[in-house]
Amino acid sequence: MQESFWLQRWHSNQIGFHARQVNGQLQRHWTTVAGSSDAAVLVPLCGKSLDLAWLAAQGHRVVGVELAEVAVAAFFAEQGVEPVITQEDAFKVYRHGRVELFCGDFFAFEARHMPGCALFYDRAALIALPAEMRERYVRHLQQILLPESHGLLVTLDYDQALMDGPPFSVSDAEVRSWNGTIWESELLESQDALEDRFRARGLTRMDERAYHLRLL
Fold first, then answer.
1. In the Enzyme Commission scheme, what number(s) does this protein have (predicted)?
2. Of 15, 116, 198, 199, whose CB has the highest number of CB atoms within 10 Å?
3. Is 45 marked as binding a ligand?
4. Which alpha helices (DSSP H) does 147-191 contain, by range?
């Protein structure tokens, strides 16, 4: 999971992980997580997700962090808008309307880049990371966000022995393993997400789960 892996995937357009529609679990469960708040939302490893535009349409300031500049530029091009581009520390930042995308390493993103943030959304970050990197990721997320922050986490769970990631399998037990130290989690929904492309790779089961998280 070196940076070069993801940059190569984006530059060669090997982006099967990019969803062509807004995530259904986001649409169904976001109000459970955010309530009536229109506060800023952090979206780690955001790619060019349509979920960014959906969150902005709900009235949020949306701050995404993405390594691949080609993905950041593509998001705004596909939205048909011209972003303002600035440099902030190690990040090239693209801004238009309510959306701000920081191009760079998520582990270099700090609370000072988004002070006072108390909402987050993760559909493609945790499952993009191998097991040995996931705890580092969740602890870094905890450092960026305020205590008592709320978030929506969407995971995939399947038999990792049958298919290598990414996307990687993140079990319910793993999510709950951080209860009491990183967050408290509540399972909101689990649905069958097995597609033909995954069946072709040998899978017989894939569950997509949505969790409401409260950071400690």
1. 2.1.1.67
2. 198
3. yes
4. 172-177
- Tokens 């990721």 found at: 137
Name the strand (E) or helix (H) holding 209: strand 207-215
Q: Tell me: is residue 66 an annotated ligand-binding position.
A: yes
Strand ordering across the sheet containing 84-88: 84-88, 91-96, 99-103, 62-66, 41-44, 119-122, 150-157, 207-215, 183-192
Structure tokens at 198: 């995954």
Helix or strand holding residue 96 (H, E): strand 91-96
What is the CATH number assigned to the segment(s) 3-7+36-215? 3.40.50.150
The answer to whether residues 64 and 46 touch, using CB atoms and an 8 Å cutoff, is: yes
Q: Is 10 annotated as a binding residue?
A: yes
Residue 1 — very low, low, confident or very high, per pLDDT cuts 50/70/90?
low
* 183 marked as binding residue: no
Provide the terminal-to-terminal Cα distance of the chain, rounded to the nearest Å.
28
Q: How, if at all, do strands 183-192 and 119-122 pair?
A: unpaired
pLDDT at 8: 72
In tens, the pLDDT along 201-213 reads 899 999 999 999 9
